[in-house]
């Protein structure tokens, strides 16, 4: 019943009420809307997975946020009114090309969370590999029989109900090597894609962005879902990527956003990284824990909704949670 309420009724109510209602919440909070990139073009390494906002839609989001919230830096403490801090995950090039000039013009600070393996287009994120393979299969479909043959060869259980694309989409991180085998079979060249399309930010672009109001945070080494890792590996991915940012970009404080999700992260993990991470972020909307050292963020790329609908819904959930219903 609660699940039904949350998924079906909330967007409707959120869309129907006045955007200003949340300003009447007594205590000012800082909200953390997050994106990956902004693009007017189809990106084969991203669009098969999710749809980033266009420059126009992103501009409208920023207009909405600026109207009702103060734009603050990532470590802002004393708030006089509700505030927002934007962040961008996965270190994608569009943030340099499209987002940075717009935010710089408006004087809005932001943070980009990078994966140490992807910076300078050294390696391709396994989910981006999956997207490229899905893109290829969409453009050059293969028969069910061939799909079955490929799946069996890869050791993936193939059910006729699911296409090879669906299997690729669900492939776990720990089986990511299969994507390389599949790329050879489907004649997709990941190295060439990295070289030609340069999907990720470079060190020099990141340094330039730092000079224009961006903070740089870590987002793990190669973006595993933490639910698939044991705690030792979770800690290694976190600490090593934070060290990478510290050494290369000399941020005073260590910021970290969990790859995919922070759900199910144990208290002992937070204790283990306490001296290494100053501020961490998840994806659970407006949410604060660990005495303000871990915050939720708001996914702005969901279902093509605009900032007003998304922010209203997030505040509504925040309000309901604080009432302990
Ligand atoms: Zn990410």
End-to-end distance: 12 Å
Biggest sheet record: 5 strands, parallel
Shape descriptor reads globular
> CATH topology of the largest domain, anyone?
TIM Barrel
Q: Which secondary-structure class do the elements indicate?
A: alpha/beta
Poorly predicted residue ranges:
none
**Mean pLDDT across residues:** 91
Helix content: 40-55%
Q: How many domains in all? A: 2
Figure out the total of helices. 12
Question: Which percent band covers the strand fraction?
Answer: 5-15%
Do you know the CATH architecture of the largest domain?
Alpha-Beta Barrel
Descriptive notes:
The chain is α/β, with parallel strands linked by helices. It folds into 2 domains: 2-123 and 199-322, Glycoside hydrolase/deacetylase (TIM Barrel); 126-194. It contains 12 helices and 12 strands. The longest helix is centred in the last third of the chain and has 19 residues, at 231-249. The two termini are 12 Å apart. The model has no long low-confidence stretch (mean pLDDT 91). Residues 89-90, 219, 223, 259 line the site of zinc ion (ZN).
Concise synopsis of the structure shown:
The protein is α/β, with parallel strands linked by helices and 325 residues long. Helices cover 44% and strands 11% of the residues. The strands form three sheets. The protein has a five-stranded parallel beta sheet.
Identify the notable features of this structure and list them briefly.
single chain, 325 residues, TIM Barrel, 2 domains, 12 helices, binds zinc ion
